Amino acid sequence: MADEMVRLAQRFVNETYGSRIGMTVEENGRTGWATMFALTRALQYELGISALSDSFGATTLSTLTSKHPKLNASTMPSADFCRIIQSALYCKGYDGGAIDGKYSDRVASSVASLKADMGVAGAFPGSSLEPKVFKGLLTMDAYVTVNNGSAAIREIQQWMNGRYIARKDFFVIPCDGHHSRDVAKSLLYAIQYELGMADGTANGVFGPGTQSGLKNHTVAVGTTGTWSLLFTAAMILNNRPVPFGNFTGTVQTGVQTFQAFAKLPVTGLGDFQTWASLLVSYGDQTRKGDACDGITKITPARAQALKAAGYKYIGRYLYNPSTTSLPEKEIQPGELATINEYGLRCFPIYQTWARSVDYYSPDQGVQDCMNAAYKAEQHGFKAGTRIYFAVDYDAVDEEVTSHVLPYFARIKSQMDYYGNPFKIGIYGPRNVCSRVSAAGYADASFVSDMSSGFSGNLGYTLPANWAFDQIVTKSVGSGDGALEIDNNISSGRDTGQGDFYPASTTKLDTGLNPGLIEALIDEATGYMASISRGEASNNIFTRRECLEAVLAVDDVITSTARRFRMRKALIQTSAFWEFCHYGKEDMNKDGGVGLYYTGVLPDWAKDLPGVEIAQDSSTGIGQIQGRVGILAWNNAIRAGLVDGTVTDPADVRPSPDADRYKMWIRLLEDEAFSVRTIGLIHIWGADGKAGDVEERPIRRPALDYNEEEIYEVLRRYQGPFEPAFSDAKLRMPLYAIFEKYNLLTRGV
Q1: What is the pairing mode between strands 445-447 and 466-476?
Q2: Exposure string for 617-637, b = 16+ CB within 10 A, e = fewer
Q3: Does the residue 508 lie in any domain?
Q4: Among 36, 109, 174, 328, which lies 20 to 30 A Cα-Cα from 84?
Q5: Residue 363, Cβ neighbours under 10 Å: how many?
Q6: pTM higher than 0.90, yes or no?
Q7: Separation between Cα atoms, residue 56 and residue 507, nearest integer Å
Q8: pLDDT tens track for 268-301
């Protein structure tokens, strides 16, 4: 909402200084950085500084301090100088008087209130405006709680301001009740001051001197005074619900909880490792991790070196788009077998470039999801493995909102579309990991905590769902076993994978080459015409329309085939054959099923003749009954091939909540789900069709299925009675057509 006094302040700076400072601001009555920058430049102009800038930096502060160490009614150099102060007060939400150039009682009272809100009233008593307070006035920082800010954090912010504002490099920090980069750095300054570091030595960096000093300042139950205040402040800033003050039993309990969460030794003491984890994202970099990641192939010698060093979990990259740079970044042939042989486990990472905001978009999310899934399947990772998609740059919060979240939303929706063959994790700074996870787009975080200066790490807490915490680069092993790794702490939330599909002698199928589609359509539809199947007066769709419907979900068919290590042609053949035979009587039966479970005819069935109530029908692109769909999914769930809840194929209550209807309606309406179900029906058929007319189990569909196995699984899809046997013979040439074009696409 526009504020008229802010509008007047903007008009003042435009009319008085616009031509002098090289900028004007929009007179919209809303405070923003542009207005604060203009007021800063106006102040610099009044101070006689020739090189004007948006920053209230060292030159501005030193010049102001030397010329006007205390600004009040008796020391004000000019009316316009005072108007700058009055305008800034209004922009900050305080009463600035009439913007008349007078340091009136109203202005003095507001300055006193400002200093009280900052927590510096003790250091700067009275109603004069000191230079460091002026600097704080010309920022967008708030000095009252905003956006549900924490009263406890505000108390800490005010306390630090009041205690350390006289130090040369300590400036007023926000008192808004929110942890931030500035607050985190100021806490490090405070610790360095208490360690006895002089101005100029204290720098807000967690360096050797600070670390050495903290090793001599373990706090525990009974500790009081400044060190207890600093430690409890660090706890509160890390979202730990402890009181700000003395180290009590309550604080000890909070420390133990934090130590357990961060995988520190649970001592209940404020020891060095605990201090370190509270103050900087990487914590104590001498900590021994049992996880690592790297860009180097894990050979037997390196695997032995890692195992000897205590590592269990190895992060490796699924893909490297470069053919020359980092030649071992992508998992190499035989590498996963080596990891398995040495009792190690692997968690996969997907990253191509991903080092700037421009990379992230919804379209890129679709592409990366598809490529990551393909690569994971190619390397031999089994379904259920978690892939960590990387955000390997310092994404600011606005970029997370505008680019990163939409990118991960599409990764999630695309993985859902594929039937969730893999779980989704995120690699990145703390804020990015937390926000993507909170949105429901990732269920575990691999945190890039080595980059402690990232805006997404400094001032943010370790994500609640952290799985791996990357803290330092180090070297392991010697000779042939030497390699450089990033040392990671693991939480136990993800233990990677230790069992992989063996390397195949033939390639997995990929998405169909678009250049082959017309030839495939001509050959497949021509074959169906030659056997007089699928296009008659009773049919609803032409053979071409049926095949185009199958090709429209080629990506899902490809994903399903790769996931279960079967040939796409099995799914394509069953889908195309069945859809070609979908006729008017099938639509009538579908209408009857809808009527049975809902009590009304579906809109698409209202004009159909002879609709009769029925509990089930063969429906959708795969012509699958609801009962069969449930049995196939139950079989896959029990076998651990897919996630889900076993449902009851006999639940035929005349209700939309009936298990059979819920399966049936998905098969009818969701073609992606239907073609995934075709793959599961082939597996169920090979397993013996439990719950149906059971048959002798055979080998599950595999990449090296022989002709007899292909025939048998195609036959079982249709049933144990004629015409299933004769139709399966007719399906075999169709299978060969699909396999011909799949082979041309994937290569041998």
Answers
A1: parallel
A2: bbbbbbbbbbbbbbbbbbbbb
A3: no
A4: 174
A5: 10
A6: yes
A7: 62
A8: 999 999 999 999 999 999 999 999 999 999 999 9
